[in-house]
Amino acid sequence: MNKYAMKNQTINTAASTNDRQNEAALLALGSALTPIPASANLRARVMANAAAPRPLHLVQAEEGEFVRVLSGVYVKRLRFDAHTESGLWRLAPGAVIPAHSHAHEEECLVLSGSIQYVGRTLHTGDFLGAAMGDYQSEISSPEGAMLLIRSELRTA
Question: Which residues are 97's β-sheet partners?
């Protein structure tokens, strides 16, 4: 066995000895503690809170803020993960979202107002989707609009 292998074996043996000692100390400490009984009222509140249904993620209308990302285009982020985000996009009358490509798929639902896309007008309730790798033409909103967009994570 060379000197590096012997050193690694010594380090591993010392680490496992420390782990065993730490585990033994924690077990001794845990068995020395005396449980404190919770009152019936506290237990009932904790159990009711634990059983209450919870939304996975909740953003109320008054929470968050719209941030300007382009001239006349404001975004309020609702949620995000490592690759995508969902947000409300408020387009002022005359706002334009330039043509762009997509590293991830994008979904857009018109909540109010209207947008123009490749010669078509999309109104409240209309949906526009783009697949990963798609190049999306310019989107304009002559009258203004509110959009719900799930898209790739914006870095700016």
Answer: 139
User: In terms of pTM, does the model score above 0.90?
Assistant: no
pLDDT exceeds 90 at position 8: no
User: φ, ψ for residue 28 (rounded to 5)?
Assistant: -65, -40
pLDDT digits (tens, 9 = 90+) for 57-66: 788 888 999 9
Beta bridge partners of 87: 77, 149
How far apart (Å, rounded) are the C-alpha atoms in residues 127 and 90? 16
DSSP string of 54-91, one letter each residue: --SS---TTSS--EEEETTEEEEEEEE-SSEEEEEEEE
pLDDT of residue 121: 98
Q: How far apart are CA 149 and CA 68, in angstroms?
A: 15
Cα gap 82→42, rounded to integer Å:
38
Cα 72 to its chain centre, rounded Å, is 25
CB 70 within 8 A of CB 118: no
The CB-side HSE value for 17 (13 A sphere, CA atoms) comes to 6
User: To the nearest 10°, the Cα dihedral for 36, 41, 47, 51?
Assistant: -160
